Amino acid sequence: MKKPNKILNHLKKQIQNEKKNNQIHAKITYIHENKIHVSLKNPTKIPKNTQIITHHIKGIITKNNHKNLEIKLTKPHKFRLHDKIIIKNIQNETITHKLEKIVSQIENNQLNEDNLETLQLLQTQINPEYDTNITYYNHKLNKNQNKAVKKALQTSKFHLIQGPPGCGKTYTIVNLIKQLHKNKKKILICSHTHIAVDNVVEKLENIADDDILRIGNKNKISQNNLKYTIDEHIKKAPEYSEIQKYKDKIEDIKSLTNKSSINNDPLIIDNNCESIFSRLFRKLLPTNNKTTNYINEVSYDENSIYELECKISNIENSLNDTIVRNVSIIATTVISASSFLIENVEFDYVIMDEASQVPLYLSLIALLKCEKFI
Ligand SMILES: Nc1ncnc2c1ncn2[C@@H]1O[C@H](COP(=O)(O)OP(=O)(O)OP(=O)(O)O)[C@@H](O)[C@H]1O
Ligand SMILES: [Mg+2]
């Protein structure tokens, strides 16, 4: 198959734009520990709570009054007052990396047949083929809606459902999703905003909760759909009790270290702390190990917290893989389709509601994960 050069050039242009637009030039005007204030060369609308990265240090925007930002950095830094810095939105960085990966895959002929066909069709606008042996009728749908679902089931590659506002496009694709789910297909539902994604997911009331995963920032997901987030799936897994056990241990260690640090002299441990120490050490250490002195104990605490966190993260990673593999329906914005959670997941269908609102280059993040798209 020929290389999709039109799309390749379009992607390269978009990457350049993304890179240029994702550079906020700023000057540090205040520093207090990990909090910095910066004045901006050009005002930006970057919202509060956006995760950013500046000179390899991550942070979060805590205030934006248009010309000045307040940023909380996640770790110690070497910035000084009046330093000029460049701030980048992490999500935009992720998108750029994802697009660069797609460009590299196209250039090095690493795209699979399905994806190559998707790009060819998008740039040439050739109509797909339809398998007319597949029939469909649902008495809840009107004539055109029935036709749309039937065509979507029959298509060899993609089907476009168009119509004026309020004519029932979302209603139709919800029906289609239910039908595909019955046919045991793996589906990615996506759209340009969280609201649009949630609007579809909320209508999937007859599908089991365990079969839907909603990926995205919890603050932006509708209340009704929070039950589908990865955290809620993890809570239902049998391994969750183990995670909880490790989290409790970490809390024990932290509260113990805090209590001990109330003493000015680190070698003095009050009775209360000592009893917690011995309780904890009985849990964590082999019985023949004796505590030596506070310094050793504190460093042991830090190591054990790290070890426990690693254990939690190992269990969570393996659970993430299992959940993502087992659910039939995953729903996310096109941007969050670049999430590491579904980095290597292939879908039978990608269903994009309000697709006209999604720029082509962003839609590719989702479309290159599927065999067919609607
Ligand atoms: N066949 C149908 N039977 C019953 N109600 C329907 C049917 N089709 C659409 N509706 C209802 O009509 C309303 C508008 O439908 P819907 O939101 O699906 O339209 P839309 O084309 O997606 O609109 P928009 O362009 O604004 O996204 C909804 O309340 C929906 O439940
Ligand atoms: Mg709609």
TrEMBL record:
Identify the enzyme class.
hydrolase
| Protein's gene | recD
Task: Please state the Enzyme Commission number of this protein.
Answer: 3.1.11.5
Task: Name the Gene Ontology molecular function terms of this record.
Answer: 5'-3' DNA helicase activity; exodeoxyribonuclease V activity
- Do you know which SMART domains this protein is assigned to? DEXDc (SM00487)
Key word Hydrolase present: yes
Give residue ranges for domain Helicase ATP-binding.
137-298
Per the UniProt entry, what species is this protein from, by scientific name?
Methanosphaera cuniculi
Keyword entries, A-Z: Hydrolase
Q: Signal peptide: which range, if any?
A: none
> Gene3D superfamilies this protein is in?
P-loop containing nucleotide triphosphate hydrolases
Can you say what this protein is called? Answer: RecBCD enzyme subunit RecD
Recorded hits in Pfam families, A to Z, give: AAA_11
KW Hydrolase (keyword) present: yes
Look up the domain of life of the source: Archaea
SUPFAM superfamilies given in the database record: P-loop containing nucleoside triphosphate hydrolases
